[in-house]
Specification:
mainly alpha, 2 strands, Growth Hormone, Chain: A, 17 helices, globular, single chain, 2 domains
Length: about 400
């Protein structure tokens, strides 16, 4: 660990973070309403049909982000892709207001396509702000990730509440307006020609190895987390019923973010002053993830209100784990990639995560009957990777100083 000197965040960091916050508020607010809208009085779909459509929509995001990243890096440029993506998403949410299945399908298509243009290109341009101050990458991307969670937090609360109180169309229109507002910081920011002038002394093969490791680790982290999802969801539903008089229903939709927000602020402050190995942070993420899942084992099959604090402690540890994983992966890609193809690499990060989650999902039938098995697999998997990363860091002590 070393003290960071003469490296500072700029106002562009704030602009990009605000853009992401408004976009995520729009997107997650829309997601809160869409299934309820499909099964509601307007379209009157069967719940199974609505969930299938929603599943196809979310799966399509993996491929749309790869397409948007390729076009952004190689054809139309990253900044133009961000603007195009935001406009497409806004039009998509407005189209859903059309009380026909045609409006629904057109809206979902435009939102998926717009998200593909928007997300990898915005993250890419944000990372490029730090090409010549790479020791601030972890702090910068944690600011960005904090904005993402703030957006989802307020989007779910605001759009979910207003859509429920005043009608779905009101919620969708608000989501579209928020998407258009997200364009304002990007338009205000100056377009810059990003050049990577810091010398990275790592060889090509080593950089490829590090990037592949980053892809694999982020996929495994979320994959093992998914192994505990069935038990976690069951506990969440039970605690929701037990504490209905204490917490409103929408609290449980954003409960994870409540702990992530203060943890992120602490991490931003620390990582703004001190630099340490990316893989050391990821190692801590897996260890805290194993602890978070392990704590769930302390809760009996049928919990009482007395076990609610244990559940919150688990959420706290998972928040610590996430802040050591999600932002740091983007830091690694930014630091070790060719800047011409950074958006493409960021778009591709969703592919191994989806593949690993799908592979682990093949065992969901067994885990559904025995959710404790999923917890044990998650604990063992995260602990093994954490220990393996300790060995990797010990073997490669010079990794933190591979760039100036």
């Amino acid at each position: 660990m070393e003290i960071i000197q003469n490296q500072y965040h700029t106002k562009e960091t704030l602009y990009f973070a605000l853009t992401r916050m408004f976009e995520r508020a729009s997107y997650y607010g829309f997601k809160t309403l869409i299934v309820l809208y499909m099964v509601g009085e307007t379209l009157k779909m069967e719940r199974s049909e609505a969930l299938n459509i929603y599943g196809v929509f979310t799966a399509s995001l993996v491929f749309s982000q790869i397409l948007g990243a390729v076009l952004g890096d190689l054809v139309i440029g990253n900044r133009r892709s961000v603007i195009l993506g935001a406009i497409l998403q806004a039009i998509g949410t407005f189209c859903i207001c059309i009380p026909l299945t045609t409006g629904l399908y057109l809206g979902l298509f435009l939102i998926a396509l717009g998200c593909g243009f928007y997300t990898p290109n915005l993250i890419s341009n944000f990372g490029k702000l730090y090409f010549n101050k790479t020791k601030l990458l972890d702090s910068g991307f944690t600011i960005f990730h904090l904005a993402t969670n703030l957006g989802s937090f307020f989007g779910v609360l605001l759009i979910g509440y207003l859509g429920d109180k005043y009608g779905f169309n009101f919620g969708f229109i608000l989501a579209g307006v928020l998407m258009l507002i997200s364009l304002i910081p990007i338009v205000l920011s100056k377009e810059r020609n990003f050049e990577k002038t810091e010398n990275n002394r790592s060889g090509l093969n080593k950089r490829i190895l590090i990037i592949v490791m980053a892809f694999t680790l982020v996929g495994l982290f979320w994959g093992f987390n998914d192994m505990s999802y069935i038990r976690n969801s069951d506990l969440q539903l039970q605690f929701k019923e037990l504490s209905s008089s204490v917490f409103p229903d929408y609290f449980w939709q954003v409960g994870n973010s409540i702990f992530f927000l203060p943890i992120s602020i602490i991490a931003i402050v620390l990582w703004n002053k001190f630099y340490s190995n990316h893989f050391f942070k990821i190692m801590l993420g897996f260890i805290f993830g194993a602890i978070a899942i392990g704590i769930l084992l302390l809760i009996p099959e049928i919990p009482t209100e007395q076990h609610l604090m244990i559940f919150f402690i688990s959420l706290l540890f998972f928040g610590i784990a996430e802040v050591h994983i999600a932002p740091v992966i983007y830091s690694i890609l930014t630091k070790y990639s060719n800047p011409k193809y950074l958006a493409i690499l960021i778009g591709l990060t969703y592919l191994p995560t989806a593949l690993i989650s799908f592979s682990f999902g093949l065992f969901n039938d067994k885990i559904y009957d025995n959710p404790i098995l999923g917890l044990k697999i998650g604990i063992i998997g995260m602990a093994i990777i954490g220990i393996g990363l300790i060995s990797f860091i010990w073997w490669n002590k010079k990794l933190p100083t591979t760039s100036a």
